[in-house]
Amino acid sequence: xxxxxxxxxxxxxxxxxxDVQVSALPADVTEYLNTYVFPYFYNVFEEExxxxxxxxxxxxxxxxANDFGPAVFNQDNLNKIIQIxxxxxxxxxxxxxxxxxMDEEDLEGEExxxxxxxxxxxxxxESEEDDGIDHDEIILGNxxxxxxxxxxxxxxxxxxxxxxxxxxxxxxxxxxxxxxxxNMATGCIAEVFASCxxxxxxxxNDFLVLVEALSSTKDNKINRxxxxxxxxxxxxxxxxxxxxxxxxxxxxxxxxxxxxxxxxLDNIVAAxxxxxxx
Length: 278
What we know:
Layout (H helix, E strand, L loop, with lengths): L5 E2 L5 E2 L12 H21 L3 H18 L6 H15 L4 H18 L23 H20 L4 H11 L9 H17 L4 H14 L6 H17 L1 H4 L3 H13 L4 H15 L2
Antiparallel strand pairs: 1-2
Helix pairs in contact: 2-5, 3-6, 5-7, 7-9, 8-9, 9-11, 9-12, 11-12
């Protein structure tokens, strides 16, 4: 039998979502995290301009939340991480602002140089644009993954922190952002709803409007997330969802007509099943 808050025979830490004290880590592990690991993470976010390094540290934080649950986040660490997430969403972290400053300096330098004075840099390190990777998109994906991991660890205890994050996250669902941003932000909100049901009533109506607005595309990735979002609302907010059942079925039918991907079709079937079970 597996015991919460302790190592299993396969050396995995079994935790229960919710309050930090429910699945406390051994004292020496907590001390190590607070003395060495988190200070290193904070230093990277404050001083590192290499986005690949930052991406990996965000992944590390998510892995910690997934592996050790709520006990990873004492109050001080949690408050700091939430503020760091906000800075990432607002694109105000060092690695995000440093690139913009460098771009501005490059433009100023080009204005004052003749073509013949430009040094050949072909042998030096390629710029982020030349490596074929959209690091801003990767960072947003890592940040939303971290939000989801923390919500799964804390459950309804995550509610006040989600309220802090919402206005910074919801901007990515606007028409000013590409489909990939909209998809990640919407999927993140749906995952938080599944882990932290207490926040659903406050955001239910606006989120349903958003889901419907994004459900008229033939993009399989978006359709997969929109179907999942409807399923989450149907499962975790039944009383709020009941008046919208007929409209939800129309949306699911439209999603089905515009979808070819197997995983997206599976989500549509799953959402339909949850509604039928009412």
